[in-house]
Amino acid sequence: MNLNGKSVWFDSGASFPIAGEVVEVTRNRISIKSLVNGKTFVFGIDETNRFGIRIPLPPEGVNDMITMSDLSEASILWNIKVRYDHRQFYTYIGSILVAVNPYYMYHDMYSIDYVRKYENALVLHAYPAHIFATASLAHSKMMSDKINQCVVISGESGGGKTQSTKLIMNYLAAVNPGKNKLITEQILEASPLLESFGNAKTVRNDNSSRFGKYIEIYYSQKSIVGAKLSDFLLEKSRIVTHSNDERNYHVFYELLEGFDTEEKRKYGLTTPEKYFYLNQGASMAITSKSDAHDFQSLLTAMKILNFTKVEQETIFKILAAILHLGNIYFSRTVDDPSHDLIQISSKTEIEWCSHLLTINEQGLLQKLTHKVTEARDERLLSPFNLEQALDSRDAIAKALYATLFSWLVSRINQIVRVNSSVDNSIAILDIFGFENFATNSFEQLCINYANEALQFHFNRHVFKLEQEEYAKEKLSWKKIDFADNTDCLDLIGKKPNGILQVLDDESNFPKATDQSFLHKCHRLHESNRLYGKPRLLKTTFSIRHYAGEVEYDVRGFLDKNRDLLRSDVIDLFSSSRNEILADMFRDIREVYESHRGFHFKTGRFITMKAKTPTVSAKFSDSLSNLIDTMTRCQPTFIRCIKPNNDKTPNKLELSVVLEQLRNTGMLETVRIRKLGFPRRYLFEQFAKRYRCLTSNPMDNSDPKEVTIHILNNLPTKFTSKYQIGITKVFMRESLEQHLEKERTQLLSEAASTIQRTIKGYIQRKNFEKQRQAVLILQRQYRRWIDRKK
């Protein structure tokens, strides 16, 4: 066989085959030129196991990977690479969209012309893969099937999930703005507002969502009438600490860059590098982001969302107070050698905090330096040591920010709430991506647990339920194995011994420590293949997730999980002369009282009630409710892919992409979408929808007979594209697209015929009227002529 000029896969020493072309063949060797970097690799003539024939791809790659004849890992990876190099950042796996982040905003790809182009597309694959096509699919399914839709956007941090969410919302707003255009605009403006308060720069992503959000957009009579937003697990620790080359939440930097000199003086503010809560990462600015411009966008969003001047000022005062809190520092005193007594060495910051929050200055001073112990009818004050005072300061700062964030979400929901009946909804899930940093803590465990749950939901929908349905309907099918992550979910969250359950148990014991929690985890899970116990005496354990092994450091786990806000601190802020701030903390006080049966005024427990839920318990409940809600919707999946680890625009590293494809089971997904039958209809539904495609009406026939008759009349190339089950017909997506195209064309022609007939009728009627009028005029004119003669 002559190999000269042939397309091949070859082993370059990487962990995956590389695309190349044979450039020279001699008696003893074969030279292959790499299509990745242009280098030439030489192999011995007997090393045929190191290269193989490759089926060339079209110049811009394949739009839908289930149409590829070569379904190898290398071919799928190379197709994504080829498309990425040609600015085709989206690729289909059937109806699943793979979106690779270009780390650059190509505005021309998301213009109103593109909206109209994909809005009018007859079928999903009529044009190149695009996020607007996926949004159009969910929208049209909701309209035609009257079923609630859910767009599930997942992927690693840096994959572009937040941007994808905004693009889908922009599309939905453009195609169905609603009768009240203000409500649509308000829904759109909620995103940049929450992005300022909930996103931050991390080492992986310049605009990383540090909370999860689930947005439900409600429709009535094909128009947007309102929305509801649910948030999950704001990363509170970021408010007081962040790693090198990271930032706190965007809003702090935007505030300081956006305020003029007079406004800074009003709030006692200066530049970001002067604040301890902002300068720990030594990264004050982001190259791709203008904080000053984004602050103006934030003000515009607040205006459109009808935030009052008083509300805006309260928000800015709380943010400024948090920055002042971070600059409060303490020093040790030597008054009592037996105790680590401290004093505040920054009185100015205390004055600014109490002034901005309109609370008692001495009260704030006391909360920072003393602990209140309740005993019968009296409260005892115990002085903090230096470490306790710093913890108290940080706890107050975190409570202020978290409370403000919850109030913002609640306020937005008040503004965009539905005031009329609802027909259906489209929900969009944008949740934090899988994370694995140098040091991973409690937040990363919760985030990765959420991603495990989403991966399970994806597997369940694409693999498990799909193949169970085939077996139930007696289809001819060879089972495809997939990576089931149920065991990992059980390890983390299953009662009674899941890691989060153990953490909750330990959190209820006052004398429990992070170390006692770790020992209990080791004892219960040491034999679990997914659990890793360190060989050395370290404060860590590891879990083998679907996306790789992650090591977690348990230091601070218990405190973060308890997240208790002292009752005296709640009292202090509830007494603020700023009514908005006071109401925020009064609501918290009511929640604490309801759970703990605690009366704040007397300091007595008035009844025995359940303990305040821990952070992990609340998060697990929220996650469970979220999955239940999504299960009741028809899902559309978008898998976001990070192209490189250094956030460089238009650069795709094959090894980085391949790792994500392997971890998320993309190869198996392509196989089941190619070989399986993901589209299914009950016979009654199919007959009702596609009866128009047959010339024989078969009005009184059995729906199954009608279905078989319609399918038998299709071209022979579609024979392998469907199977008849017991109660349903199962089809591949390509067949459904063909049927939809034929049906749409037929209905369009029928509509044109009806329009033509009606227009002809109207024109004939008008012509007859005009003819009669002309005849009358002629008759009258003749009479007039005759009289004149």
Automatic annotation (TrEMBL):
The keyword NAD does not apply. ATP binds at residues 155-162. InterPro entries: IQ_motif_EF-hand-BS, Kinesin_motor_dom_sf, Myosin_head_motor_dom-like, P-loop_NTPase. It comes from the Eukaryota. SMART domains: IQ (SM00015), MYSc (SM00242). GO terms for biological process: actin filament organization. This is Myosin motor domain-containing protein.
